[in-house]
Structure formats: structure tokens, C-alpha cells
Design a protein that fits this description.
single chain; about 300 residues; three-stranded antiparallel β-sheet; about 20% strand
Length: about 300
């Protein structure tokens, strides 16, 4: 069965593959369009397997809220260039929509979820074929209830915050502005905990140990009585709380207020109660091994 240049063009538009790959696929398929698509998919699956071991620490983090459900997720690619690709960004948003609608328990369950006429895993492999890089869905968190989301710099940081309040307060535009402020605060100040009671005892014990060591190594304080040293440590623990607990942090837009006081202020203005329940902050590639390219060696290898 013969095929035309228009057939090659149509196949390229449907699959996103290169012109020569599409021409070869139609040749191998004897001009049968469906078989050519299948050929490219099979080739793509093989390519995806080959790329699966390559480091993917770039990409983007994304957060969104739909109705009473919010989600934050991270999808990684090999290069920052791909992260700016509209096809990649659309895929990330589509995955977020699946998380919102189908509520998978974890990434493995997410990969098995339906996306269009296939699964998320199949869609992921298709994107690897088209984009030509290893892509991984790394993690996600899904909250139900009143939520606010914030994305910084196109996907370097993303925050999702869950609140407890009344529907009337949540529907007020002033609450939306407040939620955005709190999410931005988390992105900028990176609190490790919501409040003092959430700081684990072992973290506090380690902090006290470090502070006591600092006092012991300070000639001005080393010989002070233990009771004085203990008071000094507790004072510095208070500073630790202010730096690491969201509700104790100074509000970046108004240092005269803590986040707790800002929350109370907005709640009073809106005639209700507002409680920050939990939050999650993702930073693109945090904790991942970064890809390091030796460009000189790569060029030298090509020359040889």
C-alpha cells in the first residue's frame, strides 16, 4: 500500500514524531496508518525503557485547586529546556487533573489511572517518545477541603495549603487573597512545621544539644551557671520556633504581624474563624541527584 507526503505529515501531527521516523513507520507498515502508529508506539516503548535509567532531576512542580480539592505534584525531566515545553507542561496539568478526579493512593496507583482512552503510564511513555527525554512522575499530595495553591517562577516551587473555615468565609475574595499570601509565605520562608506542637521531640533535643555546645564554646558564657545556660537555650529555642513554625513566623508582607496574628486579623474582618490545618511545599529536584554533563567529552566522542 503506497503512501503520500500528506500521510507522513498527518502521522507526524498525530504522534509528534520526527518526519523521517514517520516515513520509516509507514514504510514498515506498508502504508497502513494504524499499523504505523502502532510501530511508533512500540518503538517509543523501547526508547522509554532505554531512557528510564537516565537522571531526571529537572522538570517542574505544580499546584492547583479545583472546587474543594487541591493537589501539588512534581514531574521530572532530564533538562530544564523540556520543562519549558508546552507539551510537557500540559501533561503535568493533565496528571494533576487525574489526581484530583480519581484520588490515587500513590504514584504506582496514579500510573494505573485512566487518562483519556489509555492509562497515565501509557501517556507518560508516549511523552517520552515524543519529547525524547526520561520523564518521571515523582510525587504528589492531595487535600480535600478549603485549599490555596501557589506556584513560583513557572514551577521551581509549589505550595498547597489546607484551611478549616466556613463556606461563607471561603467564598469571600478577601479569603482568596489571604490564602495566596499564606502560600507565598511558605514558598519564601520554607517553614518546616505548622506550629510548635508539631516539632518532634528529637528535633528539639538535637537543637538544645547544639545550643548548649555553642554556649560551652563561647568564652563569655561558658562559665555561667547551668540555670542561666538553660534560660539562654530556651530563649534561642523560641527563636527556632519563630524561624521554623509557620504560625510563629513574621509575615513577609508585614513584619509587625506573625502568620497567626495575620490569620486572626483576616478572620475577624470576615466575621468567622480560620485555621491553617496543614501544608506542603515542593521544590523542583530537591533531594535528587543532578545530571552533570561533560560537554567536552561528549564532543570529543562525536568527533571520534
Amino acid at each position: 500500500m503506497a503512501f503520500t507526503a500528506q500521510d507522513v505529515k498527518n502521522l507526524r501531527e498525530q504522534t509528534g514524531c520526527g518526519m523521517m521516523d514517520c516515513k520509516k513507520a509507514l514504510t514498515e507498515a506498508g502504508g497502513d496508518f494504524d499499523k504505523a502508529v502502532e510501530y511508533l508506539r512500540e518503538k517509543g516503548l523501547a526508547a522509554a525503557q532505554k531512557k528510564a535509567g537516565r537522571i531526571a532531576a529537572e522538570g517542574m512542580v505544580y499546584a492547583t485547586v479545583e472546587g474543594n480539592v487541591g493537589v501539588v505534584l512534581e514531574v521530572n525531566s532530564e533538562t530544564d529546556f523540556v520543562a519549558k515545553n508546552e507539551l510537557f507542561q500540559t501533561f503535568v496539568k493533565d496528571v494533576a487533573a487525574v489526581v484530583i478526579e480519581q484520588n490515587p493512593a500513590d504514584v504506582d496507583a496514579l500510573l494505573a489511572c485512566k487518562m483519556g482512552n489509555d492509562t497515565v503510564e501509557a501517556a507518560l511513555k508516549d511523552k517520552i517518545l515524543v519529547i525524547g527525554e526520561n520523564i518521571k512522575i515523582r510525587r504528589f499530595v492531595r487535600y480535600e477541603g478549603v485549599c490555596s495553591a501557589y506556584i513560583h517562577a513557572g514551577g521551581t516551587h509549589a505550595v498547597l495549603v489546607n484551611f478549616e473555615t466556613t463556606p461563607e468565609v471561603a467564598a469571600n475574595p478577601a479569603f482568596a487573597a489571604y490564602g495566596h499570601d499564606v502560600a507565598m509565605q511558605i514558598a519564601a520562608a520554607n517553614p518546616g512545621y505548622l506550629c510548635e506542637s508539631e516539632v518532634p521531640a528529637e528535633v528539639l533535643d538535637k537543637e538544645k544539644e547544639i545550643l548548649l555546645a555553642q554556649i560551652a564554646n563561647d568564652p563569655k558564657n561558658a562559665n555561667k551557671p547551668d540555670a542561666i545556660k538553660e534560660k539562654m537555650v530556651m530563649g534561642r529555642i523560641g527563636k527556632f520556633y519563630k524561624e521554623n513554625c509557620l504560625v510563629d513566623q513574621e509575615f513577609v508582607k508585614d513584619p509587625e504581624l506573625t502568620i497567626a496574628k495575620y490569620t486572626d486579623k483576616v478572620a475577624k474582618e470576615l466575621g468567622g474563624d480560620i485555621k491553617i490545618v496543614k501544608f506542603v511545599r515542593y521544590e523542583k529536584g530537591e533531594g535528587l541527584e543532578k545530571r552533570v554533563d561533560d560537554f567536552a567529552s561528549e564532543v570529543a566522542g562525536m568527533v571520534k
